[in-house]
Amino acid sequence: MQKKQSPITPSPARQPGQSSQDRWEELMFEKVTIPVIIAAMLALFAGLEWWYYLEPAMRSPYPATLLAMLTVAYASFNLWRVSPEMGYMKQAAESEQYVGELLEGLREQGYRVFHDLQSDDVDVDHVIVGTAGVFTIETQALSQRDGSRLQFDGETILLNGKPLKQNPVEQAKSQAGWLKAALKLNVGKDFDVWPVVLFPGWNIEQPASAFREMWVLEPKALSTFLAGKPQKLTMEEVKIISGQISLFMRAQQAFSRI
User: Does the predicted model carry a pTM greater than 0.90?
Assistant: First the structure.
């Protein structure tokens, strides 16, 4: 008997924020939905036991009630524990989707745009390829408070004078380095890959020297910076690089469906 296959070939391209959305849904199912369903079923069971107790059979409802109370407590604890992570993942997905929509507008300028590039080593939110070069884009979802300041000195991103708990600079450079190595392996040629970190809604304070090795920007400023980049790739090179990235993403999607 032949194995059934999807009629959609190749697999649809991944969407902006898909990894964050997938993680949010996984948390919702494993940590919230299942415990809540179990708690509801046991609460119903306890209610039936109480109903039986009030009948002449005089069955004791206390064991079922205790079990239901423990399960409800467990479900409530799970919800309380994962709520911060779920909130962050939802914010991250929304930020990546927002950035993805802005990047889609770059297609009119001749850029090739890719979303949610995954490997065993790194996850890249977005990649854009054009005659100005190859750019990996890391989106950071960072909540704001009145008076908050975000600064970048070329090496470290500071929030109100303190380094962020996770270092997006190292993360972005690692993503760019990984893609550069992957292109070298598959194309046989060195292509520079420029790391970019985007903070939606933030005004980043930074000196001109901070732009030497990477960009840390508010998303709407990206198109201006791209326009100031000199041409580094021919259209043929853009086509080759984009083709390799497309092949890689399709291979990853095919592997995930096995």
Answer: no
